Amino acid sequence: MAATLPPPRLLPSGDSAVTVEFSRTIDDDANQRVLALDKALAANPIDGITETVPTYRSLLVHYDPGKIGFDALGDKLLPIAIQPPPPVTKARRWRVPVAYGGEHGIDLEDVAKALNTTPDDIVARHAGGDYKVAMIGFTPGWSYLSGLDKSLHMSRRQNPRLLTPAGTISIGGVQAGIQCLAAPSGWHLLGRTPVRTYQLHRNPTFLTEPGDRVTFFPIDHKTFEELDRAAEAGEIVAEQVDA
Amino acid sequence: MSRLVVASIGPASSVQDGGRLGAQRYGLTVSGAMDRLSLAAANTLLGNEPFAASVEIGPFGAAFTARDGAVRVAISGAPRNADIAGNPVAMDTSVTVKDGETLTLGFARGGAFTYLAIEGAIKGEPVFGSLAVNARAGLGSPYSRPLQAGDEFSVDAASGAGELRIELPKPMSGPIRVVLGPQDDEFDDANKALFLGSEWKISATSDRMGYRLEGPAIKHLHGHNIVSDGTVNGSIQVPGNGSPIALMMDRGTSGGYPKIATVITADVGRLAQTSAGTAFRFRAVSMAEAQDEARKFAQLIRNLPDRLRSADSVALNIEALSDANVAGYAVSAMDAGTWQVTAEP
């Protein structure tokens, strides 16, 4: 019999959801366990669970307290959650174009100043990264990436902005992200991509899946405008390559 | 088919229903009615499904005109004056708006959101099973944005059914109840006590996404960066500036600020109906109590049809009042208890 792993923490998220937390920090192994538990629950549903939301380090399980209580659900989740996750299958990779700085990345210069370097250096470090889509959340298609260069880790803004543009490429804490729609954000805005990770009447509606790999490449602002028009018309302007 | 035309409407008014469930894993915002009980009450008055698509009317006034036939509607939620051509329409009742007539609603006298349900419900093209408007995501039908004057709904012609009223339980008052967590361990006891012991007000910059709370600054134990994880309706997150935000129906499906507590399901609508500037408090309850309240809340909504009464009963009582007082009984229209006397044959 395979050895079991340490049990996750079961954190109450109100009366109708529980956060199954595998780690407090970004941790690839924890993320694999999250995705594995998510798959296991999809394959063998527990009566009363209405929806699951995988994140970096935890699985949020929505349930109907009229069908199953907090303790009973926990008793059913734990034995599944301590099973070792199956090996990772081959992932696809997206090459995502980004117009850095200027009006598209209003925090680029401040980030460079805060880290005692130049905007070009920040761009090189950000675009040079090898990222994984750890989760999608917050707003449709918002892809949270693990793999941000350690030298770019910095605290989020004290006061979140009430609105940041669609396509924003940003960093916050130890995370990087591709934001699809205009939304509030407390992250540092480095640039914008014309890529829509979510587009309602396109097939597929959602471009990215947890587990996908991502790299960035800089484009000038004129190319951004061209690709943005193509993307608006439904074209997928990210390049897909084998990982 | 009849049409119901929006003659005038204020901001923060949109089509809402039970919300868009099942795709939170892709970041698809749930949306849906801020006050589900009031949505369900308005729909129940018309025989609609409890969470059928209705008009959620923000704090300001609105007016709706029937065209090409009569339209039967019902209103519930934040109380306001309502009339058709000067004839008052009561909250929590159905009413038939005749062709060419206009139902006019004043501003909310308390709370924020009133629901106008339409017999046969609002029709549109569901996206992920819902017509609910989420303006940020460009979702919702028949309009994927807040409503404006001139918008119109194609609706069923009024059935001619007798008008009804619904007797809702007396609205609860007192603190908004929360379950601590999921990240209450990111705060020390003093700051948890500060959160539970302080008076809060909802900031005017609040919206359907989140209610910003004005009060003391809540300090984190380990800073305000956590790794983003899932959110629910009523999650109370504390950003770096220490001012908590209660996440509402247009919330992001995940967030990266520590969540000190979560509003219980039965009280989310009550928080939604708390007007900006009104002082209130939170109170922590056990998981057992919260789940018991959630089950009772679901049962209340399921059993709403048992609370329907004929709207005529009000008019009959006024006649009875007149008769009784003419006959020399001292009967007060304000005291339901005295009706027991006159109801006897």
From TrEMBL, chain A:
The keyword ATP-binding applies. It comes from the Bacteria. GO terms for molecular function: ATP binding; hydrolase activity. Signal peptide: none annotated. Residues 8-207 form the Carboxyltransferase domain. Keywords: ATP-binding, Hydrolase, Nucleotide-binding. This is Sensor histidine kinase inhibitor, KipI family. It comes from Bradyrhizobium shewense.
UniProtKB/TrEMBL annotation, chain B:
InterPro entries: CT_A_B, Cyclophilin-like_dom_sf, PxpC. Keywords: ATP-binding, Hydrolase, Nucleotide-binding. Residues 25-300 form the Carboxyltransferase domain. The keyword ATP-binding applies. Transmembrane segments: none annotated. SMART domains: AHS2. One of its GO terms (molecular function) is hydrolase activity. Pfam families: CT_A_B. This is Biotin-dependent carboxylase uncharacterized domain-containing protein. It comes from Bradyrhizobium shewense.
